[in-house]
Amino acid sequence: MSCRLRPTTGNFFTYPHQQYQASKASIATNSYQRASETAYKQQNRLYSAPAPGSVPLSKQKYVPTSGTYPKGFLASGIHVGVKPSNTQFPDLALLASLTPCSGAAVFTQNKFQAAPVTISRRVLERRSGEGIRAIIVNSGCANAVTGKGGLDDATAMGNTVDSCFARSGGPPAGASTTLVMSTGVIGQRLPISKILHAIPNAYSALSSTHTDWLLAARAICTTDTFPKLLSRTFSLPSSPGITYSLAGMTKGAGMIHPNMATLLGMLFTDAPIPAKTLQPLLAHAVDRSFNAISVDGDTSTNDTLALLANGAAGGRPITSAESEDGKALTEIITSFTQELSQLVVRDGEGATKFVRVRVINASSFHDARKIASTIARSPLVKTALYGKDANWGRILCAIGYTDGLGAGAVVPEKTSVSFVPTDGSTALKLLVKGEPESVDEARAGMILGEEDLEILVDLGGGEGGAGKEEASYWFCDFSHEYVTINGDYRT
Q: For 164-201, what is each residue's pLDDT tens digit?
């Protein structure tokens, strides 16, 4: 099948063996609101989304209706049917640049690393992070713990995209220029013939429109109830007259307690950043965003977060993360990844709460982050929040059993805990310097009845009293629906 790069959008999709015409904008928006009864019965899941493909009313505010995307990047999302029960929704995404990019990525620390993780890491290493052209992503099957066959499948996906570029006058044959990602059920092989046959269609459908970026974000979803897509513009000190763009998408609702990145995430910018600068920028941002979220405490086999920069907007190359431009960009990317990663928590499987735990006046950032992480993944804390129970003893318990802290990191007599409402009203103090407060249960119930909540832990400076470091973690509660979703995930 021929491959043709189409920088501007057309009117219709054409899929293999399917003859129907539909507005791409309609697919991107209306399909979320109109899921067929047949598809619903096939999936038969009773959780946050009332039917496959629909977005709950409470989540629709997180789906962007427009965007500002980086120059030279194109996106597409098409239906393949990787998972047999998916008969209509996009499940193959392609993100590509018209020109070669610098690339950086962080990967899962799970010892059972999926085939796409191995292949993408290999691509970046062989190319020293330069000359990357695309990311190909499928949902519906993780291609994890699939042996040599899984590695061959991931390689074939990347090579097929490379072939599309070659036929369009792209880079000559050599080391692959395509990163590969997969998400879905572990331990099953991909329907690789289906996917390889569809990749040229995804390539031909590439476009720069918001509709196509949204379709790509939708295509990487699994149990997500809404596509997670953000974009913004920014400027840099050395080039105040140039407007740069940054776009990102992610997916994830369960198996989320990353130890490097997220389930899957992709960032794209038209700023000129060499690979040697990209990696430290990404690592700094990830530690304060995707490595600071938790839904259920599980680290996926497929976690990958990639950042591509094609320099299409021009300006002076950012050759050091320590330069003025580098420091400004570090703040921009960190803020952006925090906002993007928090969408994953807001879409946590069965979640009813979005919670930030902030640990302040710690002896070190490491100690603050470890304590926040322990609270965020405590099942007892999470179930108490779901039940609107101000059981602050569970928070103290989690603080007390946190491993790996420095000497004197936690002094019970200096520790305070509060619930902080998001409406700006006064914090509800639960524990002050080791002494329990008389808690207004009615007010506690009102605070816990809201969707958003902050838990503030003040360590009082630790044993020496001089600690000023802080860290935050974002997490959600555990509900009955979480069990329902994960009890029938493979069906």
A: 998 876 555 578 999 999 998 889 999 999 999 999 99
- Of the candidates 280, 278, 273, 267, the one whose C-alpha atom is nearest the C-alpha of residue 339 is 267
Instruction: Give 208-239 as a DSSP string.
Output: -SHHHHHHHHHHT-SS-SS-EEEEEEEEETTE
Say how many C-beta atoms besides its own lie within 10 A of residue 449's C-beta: 11
Q: Judging by beta carbons within 10 Å of its beta carbon (0-12, 13-18, 19+), is residue 474 exposed, middle or buried? A: buried
Which residues of the chain are modeled with pLDDT < 50? 1-2, 4-23, 25-50, 254-262, 296-300
**Predicted local confidence at residue 194, as pLDDT:** 97
**Residues with Cβ < 8 Å from 161, sequence gap 6 or more?**
94, 96, 133, 134, 136, 178, 199, 203
Output the pTM of the full model.
0.81
Q: How far is CA 158 from CA 175, 200, 353, 414, 484, in A?
A: 10, 12, 39, 55, 35
Residues sharing a CB contact under 8 Å with residue 272, sequence separation 6 or more, in sequence order = 309, 311, 313, 314, 315, 316, 317, 318
Rounded Cα gap, residues 74 and 102, in angstroms: 16
| Cβ neighbours of 194 (radius 10 Å) | 14
Q: Is 262 among the catalytic positions?
A: yes
> In this structure, are residues 256 and 294 in contact, taking their beta carbons and an 8 Å threshold?
yes
CA distances from 463 to 306, 355, 357, 410, 414 (A): 40, 28, 22, 7, 8
- The C-alpha atoms of residue 310 and residue 134 are separated, in whole angstroms, by 11
To the nearest 10 degrees (0 to 180), the angle between helices 275-287 and 324-346 is: 50
Task: Determine the Cα–Cα distance for residues 104 and 46; give it in Å rounded to an integer.
Answer: 38
- Alpha-carbon span 132 to 129, nearest angstrom: 7
Q: Which of 155, 222, 262, 304 is catalytic?
A: 262
Nearest residue to 286 (alpha-carbon basis) of 105, 51, 28: 105
Helix (H) or strand (E) holding 309: strand 304-309
Distances 31 to 39, 66, 248, 306 between C-alpha atoms, Å: 12, 17, 22, 28
**What's the rounded Cα separation, in Å, for the pair 106 and 283?**
7
Q: Parallel, antiparallel, or unpaired for β 92-107 and 130-141?
A: antiparallel
